[in-house]
Amino acid sequence: SAVISQKPSRDICQRGTSLTIQCQVDSQVTMMFWYRQQPGQSLTLIATANQGSEATYESGFVIDKFPISRPNLTFSTLTVSNMSPEDSSIYLCSVGIRGNTGELFFGEGSRLTVL
Amino acid sequence: QKEVEQNSGPLSVPEGAIASLNCTYSDRGSQSFFWYRQYSGKSPELIMSIYSNGDKEDGRFTAQLNKASQYVSLLIRDSQPSDSATYLCAVNRGTSGTYKYIFGTGTRLKVLA
What we know:
Order of helices and strands of chain A: EEEEEEEEEEE
Shape of chain A: globular
Largest sheet of chain A: 7 strands, mixed
Helix content of chain B: under 10%
Helix content of chain A: under 10%
Number of strands of chain A: 11
Low-confidence stretches of chain A: none
Oligomer: heterodimer
Number of helices of chain A: 0
Radius of gyration of chain B: 13 Å
Radius of gyration of chain A: 13 Å
Number of helices of chain B: 0
Mean pLDDT of chain B: 93
Strand content of chain B: over 45%
Strand content of chain A: over 45%
Largest sheet of chain B: 6 strands, mixed
Largest interface: A-B, 22 and 23 residues
Mean pLDDT of chain A: 92
Number of strands of chain B: 11
């Protein structure tokens, strides 16, 4: 597996503001993803973070709302823009490790509350 | 029909009993299957992966896969109160080396002391 560090672990934000979540992995990984888990729900994939290029977004998620960067193989950021209370959720960074058999590992998550 | 279905529970079992968690999936071409444990307020933790029909055992955990019937199960032997958590079934619909995960909504397990 890998050690996946996310920060902040939690935050309370005001409506209309933006927050950037960072994800750092201790080894080079093939794939990095961002998931959202709303209260009482399962995990929903927001996008795949591509190194050095634009992220690949899933249906229902757009770059203007969730800009993502991945400047190298071990680091990515997710920004939640112009937040509303509906964005209150846990945001999870996840990675697939090079050479691995498709297993996915998760960071500790960032719990975001929007007032 | 959901792509990955699980009974939401809660499934309550006494301490020391066997907990049986089930999951069905709709994409017959899926190749990889995973069980994650998620404690309240924590992120999912991978506990089992299975790729071939049959059983795979790891300590107190046994994963079972039946591709013909499109179901995956997780057995937890000698259940402990510390096993109380939500268990997520995940199916990777991608081919080897790719990641197209679909998660179930999870089954909440309560192990009663």
